[in-house]
């Protein structure tokens, strides 16, 4: 019953550890379902048993407290099982971004000192090319969801489902120190080696509680509560799918994991499983919204947090026209990730669509236990006037303590007791944060700052524009001038000229939405915009291309 | 901006302190109202300013971190201000139960080493009789809500509102260690000296977050969210009004403080201020429900947690007939206090009234981060079968670490790493706890346990019964036999006999709701039932009387 002997009068110093989170759904919703595509369906009771089996199996394979277990998988129930079992036994879960280059994957696995790999057979071709270069990996477990294991040079130690079936269904998870490291993954900068961020049990627990309060106890347009049905559409390897699988589990909601992101399958799951709550990047929203099946699907109960890149007004309006409730969530790999939500407060409920769109595309209000400021060049906080822009800095209980084994980078991250985001933004008198740029992407024209996000947002409101990116290109007179890289909607190709778009931007400047010097001179039409492995605009590549 | 210098790369170890809770409502709901009776009305922005002024004023009166400030007041905005200002400056808030005897009040104030007293002028007559015996009190601040200060022998150092008006509106609240003691008060046992319980910043913060999730993010009949209007009707001196003023503040809801509990004023506030969420003991619910104005008042939006004593089925039904949503909350002074809520899970929403009544009168399901068990005489957990009764024990992050300066009592409280409640109960297969008795009140007839709460609950369903108490009286043959002490409803006095009630109990035994040996032999009609200072049945007094 207790893990150790307690003296009479000695109190139990209840730790904030992930094991404790699991108690609530097992009482409130033991029979609630967890679904993986059209392939698997079980209850929270089963989830709990599989977590216990997984821990036993990993222990048998030599995993000890402090060891790292790396997982390569699509969004699945297996990943969810690892979210709990690995940290609960005192080990560290590494979520591997399989979209990285082979060299980067080798780097991250060696840097994290992963000892065991759990991998979907679909990714075995990657592992095959890098296996020999992995310094600490002693065992490979495969997830064979297609039933068979393809021929491979990789030595395979176990098959996931067989390993679970063979393991005991009871494991005595220890009472860990709440500051024990629970998870790690690597951020995908556009320069240098990936940087390892990491989170403790306490950090994940407080992130979960705060998000549950912000999304559940506040009356807003985008609530997430025990009667919702949850399906993440941001990768589970990326900041634990924004930490929301932990919130979903605490609430005991039905959870649906979609595997790969195929628009038809996603829409099918939304319809058949009655999904009401998701989160994704703008590109995925667009992919779903423009899918042929979307119009036939009732999306009026679907609430979606958009993050990763800025939700444009045009995208929000298009989603709204399909009945989808969208709003912005903001955070970074370094922040676990949730920092803010653009949920309109109660008094805004009756606002008309136009005013609501202005709110939902904002970066948002801080979650409980989140503080942010914008700093000037001297590190002093700027006024909350909706104008004064500077670097955005954070304090919350769930920020990575450091970049793992990277002291110099950590020194740039944590300055004066604030985490420095590398984002530029301003805060208005109501406390709304608005990110306007990355520090490194900001365009400086004639000494004035031009926000690339503002430019992209205004251009997205032109009927012909599917997607755009603003970058600064060197200019002899002004230092830099903004230019736009544009993907047109198929119907408008060859029907719209750069000058049409420039007229649109000029009009915006006349309407006071943009300074005059901010109107870009150059508009380049392309078929596709360069993106990073997690789907963000890759401006470094674009700047090189158009310089 | 920061409280101390941080080295480059040094992270900010965000503490769970009450100061941080206040940030959220100031952003989400700065203009929301806080109301005190028909006497005062201001915004959260004002609350924040008054908290800063109060801290400055207390510091000027010599209050330092670690000092104790004792407050004697009705439920008011002043108490709410003290809930924040005193702990936020690192001092300890003592909530004084002014219903205790003069000797007990002297004991608690001296034992807590209170240095300053804030007192409503209504309570000056008490202070007058005890002032000389208070060892550490250096200053007395009066709350003069009637405008004038009555003549008194007590030396008065300041008047609350004047003191605030004179103080500076900015105070640099420190970043405390989250394990700093924040609040203390004394439990009112029926034997021995009052026992001091105490809670830290971390404990209050986690209690607040968990309660906000349980009441907000779960779809239940009794939710508490940002669009509710809150009015506590359990004293703020008693376990910080169940900690719910902290939850209300986090949510930024409108808060209404009723002062003294006068039924007409309470109903007026419910109607005029549109109160939707409260909590009280059964006696107060009954007082309100039977008030002449109740029928004219629309109570259909009013949700009330009932705690302190068992909510009987009869009371729940009567409340329901007035449109009130009631359910049970359970906790103790030692537990901060919330442990469980009888909120029916989602799948029960469509149940008929009878089945719902069975649920709402249960002790309930644990809040997130709460664990409970029932133990047999050897300290082993009993099966969750809805039958096996034993002492109820708890683990959560918000249990008092000890009885202050009372090692022997603490040794009885904390055994084997579990807080021992002194309550007897059982847990059913769905995880619902049901308290059936106090360990010391349990009736042992012929070696079998008879639950006094079961007897009271069954008898409450007789039309004639307003209130009842079951006690064990010595019996030569059986050891003890149960007897009932009964208050009849006014219309039934002289029309109902003890034998009528015995028939009712016999019928319940025939229906399987009660063991046959549990049917009481003796039924004593009284005008009033003995109660403790916080309104609980005082069975010690009754046992002495009827032995």
Automatic annotation (TrEMBL), chains A, B:
<dbReference type="Pfam" id="PF13193">
    <property type="entry name" value="AMP-binding_C"/>
</dbReference>
<dbReference type="GO" id="GO:0006631">
    <property type="term" value="P:fatty acid metabolic process"/>
</dbReference>
<dbReference type="GO" id="GO:0016874">
    <property type="term" value="F:ligase activity"/>
</dbReference>
<dbReference type="InterPro" id="IPR000873">
    <property type="entry name" value="AMP-dep_synth/lig_dom"/>
</dbReference>
<feature type="domain" description="AMP-dependent synthetase/ligase">
    <location>
        <begin position="30"/>
        <end position="404"/>
    </location>
</feature>
<dbReference type="Pfam" id="PF00501">
    <property type="entry name" value="AMP-binding"/>
</dbReference>
<dbReference type="InterPro" id="IPR045851">
    <property type="entry name" value="AMP-bd_C_sf"/>
</dbReference>
<protein>
    <submittedName>
        <fullName>AMP-dependent synthetase and ligase</fullName>
    </submittedName>
</protein>
<comment type="similarity">
    <text>Belongs to the ATP-dependent AMP-binding enzyme family.</text>
</comment>
<dbReference type="InterPro" id="IPR042099">
    <property type="entry name" value="ANL_N_sf"/>
</dbReference>
<keyword id="KW-0443">Lipid metabolism</keyword>
<dbReference type="InterPro" id="IPR025110">
    <property type="entry name" value="AMP-bd_C"/>
</dbReference>
<keyword id="KW-0276">Fatty acid metabolism</keyword>
<feature type="domain" description="AMP-binding enzyme C-terminal">
    <location>
        <begin position="455"/>
        <end position="536"/>
    </location>
</feature>
<keyword id="KW-0436">Ligase</keyword>
């Amino acid at each position: 019953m207790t893990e150790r002997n307690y003296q009479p009068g000695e109190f139990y110093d209840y730790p904030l550890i992930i094991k404790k989170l699991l108690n609530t759904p097992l009482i409130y919703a033991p029979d609630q379902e967890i679904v993986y595509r059209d392939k698997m369906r079980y209850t929270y009771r089963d989830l709990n048993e599989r977590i216990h089996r997984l821990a036993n199996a990993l222990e048998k394979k030599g995993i000890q407290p402090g060891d790292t277990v790396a997982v390569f998988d699509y969004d699945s129930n297996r990943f969810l099982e690892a979210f709990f079992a690995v940290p609960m036994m005192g080990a560290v879960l590494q979520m591997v971004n399989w979209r990285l280059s082979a060299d980067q994957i080798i780097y991250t696995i060696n840097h994290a000192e992963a000892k065991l790999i759990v991998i979907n057979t679909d990714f075995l071709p990657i592992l095959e090319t890098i296996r020999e270069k992995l310094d600490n990996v002693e065992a490979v477990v495969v997830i064979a969801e297609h039933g068979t294991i393809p021929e491979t040079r990789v030595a395979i130690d176990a098959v996931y489902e067989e390993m679970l079936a063979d393991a005991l269904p009871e494991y005595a998870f220890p009472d860990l120190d709440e500051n024990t490291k629970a998870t790690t993954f690597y951020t995908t900068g556009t320069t240098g080696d990936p940087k390892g961020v990491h989170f403790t049990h306490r950090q994940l627990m407080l992130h979960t509680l705060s998000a549950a309060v912000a999304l559940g106890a506040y009356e807003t347009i985008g609530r997430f509560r025990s009667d919702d049905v949850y399906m993440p559409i941001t990768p589970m390897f990326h900041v634990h799918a924004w930490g929301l699988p932990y919130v979903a589990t605490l609430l005991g909601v039905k959870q649906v994991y979609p595997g790969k992101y195929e628009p038809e399958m996603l829409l099918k799951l939304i319809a058949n499983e009655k999904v009401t709550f998701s989160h994704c990047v703008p590109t995925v929203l667009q992919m779903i919204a423009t899918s042929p099946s979307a119009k036939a699907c009732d999306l009026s109960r679907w609430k979606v947090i958009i993050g990763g890149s800025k939700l444009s007004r045009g995208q929000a309006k298009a989603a709204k026209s399909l009945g989808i409730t969208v709003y912005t969530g903001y955070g970074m790999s370094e922040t676990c990730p949730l920092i803010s939500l653009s949920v309109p407060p109660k008094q805004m409920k009756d606002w008309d669509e136009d005013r609501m769109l202005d709110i939902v595309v904002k970066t948002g209000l801080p979650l409980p236990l989140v503080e942010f400021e914008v700093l000037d060049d001297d590190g002093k906080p700027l006024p909350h006037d909706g104008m004064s822009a500077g670097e955005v800095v954070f304090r919350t209980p769930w920020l990575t303590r450091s970049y793992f084994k990277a002291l110099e980078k950590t020194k740039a991250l944590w300055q004066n007791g604030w985490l420095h985001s590398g984002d530029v933004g301003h805060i208005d008198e109501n406390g709304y944060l608005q990110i306007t740029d990355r520090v490194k992407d900001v365009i400086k024209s004639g000494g004035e700052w031009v926000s690339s996000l503002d430019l992209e947002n205004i251009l997205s409101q032109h009927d012909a524009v599917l997607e755009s990116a603003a970058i600064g290109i060197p200019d002899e007179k002004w230092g830099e001038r903004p230019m736009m890289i544009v993907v047109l909607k198929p119907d408008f190709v060859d029907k719209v000229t750069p000058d049409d778009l420039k007229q649109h931007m000029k009009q915006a400047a006349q309407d006071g939405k943009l300074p005059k010097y901010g109107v870009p001179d150059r508009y380049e039409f392309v078929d596709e915009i360069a993106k990073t492995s997690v789907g963000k605009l890759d401006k470094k590549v674009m700047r090189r291309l158009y310089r």
